[in-house]
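User: Here's a chain of 302 residues. Predict its fold as tokens.
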Amino acid sequence: MAVLRVLRTASFRLAAPYAAVFAVSACVLGAAVFFAANPNHLPPPPQEHAMDQTLRQAISKVPEVTLGFWIIKVIATTLGETGGDAVTMTLGLGYLVGTAIFAALFVAAVAAQVMARRFHPFLYWAVIAATTTAGTTLADFFDRSLGIGYVGGSSILFALLLAALGLWHRALGSVSVNTVTTPRAEMFYWATIMFSQTLGTALGDFLADTGGLGYSGGALVFGAALAVVAGLYFYTSLSRTLLFWAAFILTRPLGATVGDFLDKPLANGGLAMGRFTASAVLLAVMVGLILFFPQRASRHPA
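Assistant: Prediction complete.
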């Protein structure tokens, strides 16, 4: 009997982390699918003004994609890396507990965003920050706690990202951010962002650590990749939706490598700022940029 109890305890401890990851992933995708199939459970979209109806334009609750958007996005992803590591490593709570904490914050932030009747810049970027911190801890949990490794973790996360995009397109016919004007579209939008942020974290760690490029080298590689995407945007007719999601994914590992560069010890190629210090500085910069850059909701033909 004692042997059986030991075996049951060991089995539970081995299975619990996998069950936790599965539960987080299933909840995000499941919520998106549920609300897409049951739109009555979501708040109705805000009523358009008569002039808006005449112009047949809809206002979304996501900002226009401008240079300021991408600058704030990189800062937010860097904050996610330092903030996530501060909770899981500096405080010693571990990746599983950290993932649970930030997943709860992510769910609460998304609920507030979906229930909002109009675009609120600070609320939107709070949700983005929540996805980056949750993505950091979840990716580390995949790669380190479960022992899947960076390649295995990235493969699983890439599959989840494709699943989110596929379900979104199947349900609504488009994955363009210009169509995010209804609560249904918002659910798919945030599920896709969550998985893209997590995938980006895993890619950044893989290139910096396993790839041997270090944090500065990884930042240069992802910065160059973003420059290529920008070039394709300005000088080709490639799908703007494809280029947006490519850039969105690439900004995450760029932020991850920059965040590691800021807080890692000097002996490991970092600046040894400290995770809480770096997070505080990044948060202040992010708030300043949100106030500095004009924050307008994007518009598109209805």
